[in-house]
C-alpha cells in the first residue's frame, strides 16, 4: 500500500476509504479498527493537507485524497493518466453499464447517444415544466389560502419536485403534483425507493443474492423491495417506449424537445449497429439519468433555501432582481434565465458550501507522476509516483473550503462570483474535464426557475431558537456530520407570503 502511494503520509486503518465493508461498519471503533467512514471527507479532509493517503491493512485498497485545484485538474483533466475506476465488486454492475461509470472507450459510445438530447430544446422544456409543476404544487398544497406555510422536511419537497421534473423532461412521464410520479410504485413510492437505494448502497454491494431470501426482513428487505420496485418500473416504461417507437408514435425530432433522453436510450437499443445499447445498458442509463438527474438538484435547493433564510440580505437582492426582471409579476420564462444573475450566484455559492457530490474517484491507468502542491502557495512542492491501479479521491469539499481558492470559505458570499458568475477553475461541484456533468444546464435551469417562482411570492424563513444567531443555526442544523456524502440533515423552513391577502 505504501509503495502504491509513494509513501504519502496519512491514515493507516483496518478498512479502506472506499471499502464497502468499512462503510457498513461504525466508524472509529478504536485506533486499531479506525475506519474513515463515509463522512471522513467532510469531517477531516477539508482542514487537513492537500494530499493524504488512506492505507487499510484489512480490507480495501490504498487511496490518496487530494484537495487542491491544481491536483484536481491533473486528475480530472484530459490526459490518459487517470480514468474512472474499473469495476471490482459484483455490486459495481448493480444498475448496468452506464455513461457515468464506464472508462473512456466504452464511455464515448454512451455520450454519443446521449449528448444530442442535451440541447436548448430540452432546457426550454425544463423551464416550462418547472413553472407548471410549481404552480401545480401551490394549488395542490393549497398554499394560496395560507399566509405562511411550514415545510417540516424540506428535502421531501425538493426531492419530489426534482424527481417530477426529470421524469417529465427526460422521460416524458408526465404527472401532476398530487398524482406524482414520485408516488408511483407498489409497496414503496419511487421517491422512497431512490432514497433507500442511496442510503443502503453498501448493503447491496455486499449482500449475496441468497441473503435476501434467507433474511427477508430489516434493511435487506427494504433494499430488495426498493430495487425490485424501481427495476420493475423501468422495465415497464422501457417496454412501453419500445411499443411507441415501433408504432412511430414518438419521433426524436419532437418539436417540443420531449422524449429525447429516454427516447435516445431506447432507440439505441433497437437500432443495432456499432453504437447499439444492450439491455443492461438501457437499464443502466435509465437508472443513472433518473437518479443523477434529481437527487443532486434536490440537494442544491435543500441547502440554498435555508442559506437564503439565514442571509436575508442575499434573499432581498434576489427579490429586487425578480422585481426588475418581472415588473408585472408574470411567471418567468426561459428567456429571463440570463437576467437572473443574483439567483445563479446564490446557487453556485450554495453548491460551493454544500456540494451535492462531495468526492470524485479516478484510478491511475499506469504508474503516474502527480505534482503535489504546497497548501499555502499553490506552487509545485514535490512529485509522487502513484502505481497503476491506485485510486485517487478528488475531495471537492476540501477544494471548496480551501482558503487559497475561496477566501473566508465558511461564509455564504455569492458576491465572490461577481467577476465570473458561471465558472471558476476551483469550482468542482459539476466535476471537470471530459467527464464533467452532462446535466449541468438542466439542473441550473430547473433550480433558477424554482427559486424565481418561489421568491417572487414567498419569503423563506427558518426558526432560530432563543438567542441563536443565523450562523449558530447554520452550524447546528446544517452540520458537518449531517451533511456527509448523504446530504444535509433534516431541515425545516417556513414560506411567508410577501403580499398578504
Ligand atoms: C446540481 C445538480 C448536479 C450536480 C451537482 C451534478 C454533479 C455531477 C458530477 C460532479 C459529475 C461528474 C462525476 C465524475 O467526474 O465522476 C456528474 C456527472 C454526470 N451527471 Fe450530474 N450533476 C447534477 C445534475 C445532473 C442532471 C440534472 C443530470 C441528468 C439529467 C445529470 C447527469 C449526469 C451524468 C449522466 C453524468 C456522467 C457524465 C459522464 O461521465 O460523461 N447530472 N454530475
From TrEMBL:
One GO MF term on file is: iron ion binding
**Alphabetical keyword list:** Heme, Iron, Metal-binding, Monooxygenase, Oxidoreductase, Signal
The cofactors named for this UniProt entry are: heme
Q: Does the keyword rRNA-binding apply?
A: no
Q: Which SUPFAM superfamilies match?
A: Cytochrome P450 (SSF48264)
Chain positions recorded as heme binding sites: 437
What Pfam families does this protein's entry cite?
p450
Q: Per its UniProt record, what InterPro entries does this chain match? A: Cyt_P450, Cyt_P450_CS, Cyt_P450_E_grp-I, Cyt_P450_sf, Cytochrome_P450_Monoox
Membership in a protein family:
Belongs to the cytochrome P450 family.
This chain belongs to which protein, by name? Answer: Cytochrome P450
Amino acid at each position: 500500500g505504501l509503495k502504491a502511494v509513494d509513501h504519502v503520509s496519512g491514515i493507516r486503518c483496518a478498512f479502506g476509504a472506499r471499502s464497502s465493508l468499512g462503510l457498513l461498519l461504525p466508524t472509529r471503533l478504536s485506533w486499531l479498527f479506525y475506519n474513515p467512514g463515509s463522512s471522513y471527507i467532510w469531517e477531516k479532509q477539508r482542514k487537513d493537507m492537500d494530499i493524504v493517503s488512506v492505507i487499510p491493512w484489512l480490507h480495501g485498497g490504498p487511496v490518496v485524497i487530494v484537495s487542491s485545484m491544481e491536483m484536481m485538474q491533473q486528475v480530472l483533466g484530459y490526459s490518459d493518466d487517470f480514468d474512472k475506476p474499473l469495476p471490482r465488486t459484483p455490486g459495481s454492475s448493480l444498475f448496468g453499464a452506464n455513461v457515468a461509470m464506464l472508462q473512456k472507450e466504452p464511455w464515448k459510445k454512451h455520450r454519443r447517444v446521449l449528448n444530442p438530447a442535451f440541447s436548448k430544446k430540452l432546457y426550454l422544456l425544463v423551464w416550462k415544466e418547472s413553472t407548471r409543476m410549481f404552480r401545480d404544487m401551490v394549488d395542490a398544497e393549497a398554499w394560496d389560502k395560507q399566509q405562511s406555510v411550514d415545510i417540516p422536511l424540506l428535502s421531501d419537497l425538493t426531492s419530489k419536485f426534482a424527481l417530477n421534473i426529470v421524469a417529465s423532461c427526460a422521460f416524458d412521464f408526465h404527472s401532476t403534483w398530487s398524482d406524482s410520479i414520485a408516488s408511483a410504485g407498489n409497496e414503496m413510492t419511487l421517491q422512497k425507493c431512490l432514497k433507500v437505494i442511496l442510503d443502503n448502497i453498501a448493503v447491496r454491494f455486499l449482500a449475496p443474492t441468497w441473503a435476501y431470501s434467507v433474511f427477508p426482513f430489516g434493511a435487506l428487505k427494504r433494499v430488495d423491495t426498493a430495487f425490485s420496485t424501481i427495476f420493475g418500473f423501468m422495465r415497464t416504461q422501457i417496454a412501453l417506449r419500445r411499443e411507441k417507437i415501433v408504432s412511430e408514435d414518438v419521433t426524436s425530432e419532437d418539436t417540443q424537445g420531449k422524449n429525447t433522453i429516454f427516447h435516445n436510450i431506447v432507440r439505441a437499443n433497437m437500432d443495432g449497429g456499432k453504437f447499439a445499447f444492450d439491455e443492461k445498458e438501457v437499464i443502466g442509463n435509465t437508472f443513472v439519468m433518473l437518479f443523477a438527474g434529481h437527487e443532486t438538484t434536490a440537494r442544491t435547493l435543500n441547502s440554498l433555501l435555508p442559506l437564503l433564510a439565514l442571509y436575508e440580505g442575499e434573499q432581498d437582492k434576489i427579490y429586487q432582481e425578480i422585481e426588475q426582471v418581472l415588473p408585472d409579476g408574470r411567471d418567468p420564462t426561459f428567456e429571463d434565465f440570463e437576467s437572473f444573475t443574483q439567483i445563479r450566484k446564490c446557487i453556485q455559492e450554495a453548491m460551493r458550501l454544500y456540494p451535492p457530490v462531495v468526492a470524485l474517484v479516478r484510478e491511475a491507468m499506469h504508474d503516474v507522476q502527480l505534482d503535489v502542491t504546497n497548501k499555502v502557495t499553490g506552487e509545485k512542492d514535490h512529485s509522487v509516483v502513484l502505481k497503476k491501479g491506485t485510486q485517487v479521491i478528488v475531495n471537492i469539499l476540501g477544494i471548496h473550503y480551501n482558503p487559497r481558492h475561496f477566501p473566508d470559505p465558511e461564509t455564504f458570499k455569492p458576491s465572490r462570483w461577481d467577476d465570473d458568475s458561471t465558472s471558476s477553475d476551483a469550482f468542482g461541484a459539476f466535476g471537470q474535464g471530459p467527464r464533467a456533468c452532462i446535466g449541468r444546464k438542466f439542473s441550473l435551469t430547473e433550480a433558477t426557475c424554482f427559486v424565481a417562482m418561489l421568491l417572487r411570492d414567498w419569503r423563506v424563513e427558518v426558526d432560530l431558537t432563543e438567542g441563536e444567531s443565523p450562523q449558530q443555526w447554520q452550524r447546528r442544523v446544517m452540520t458537518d456530520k449531517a451533511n456527509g456524502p448523504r446530504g444535509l440533515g433534516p431541515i425545516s423552513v417556513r414560506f411567508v407570503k410577501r403580499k398578504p391577502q
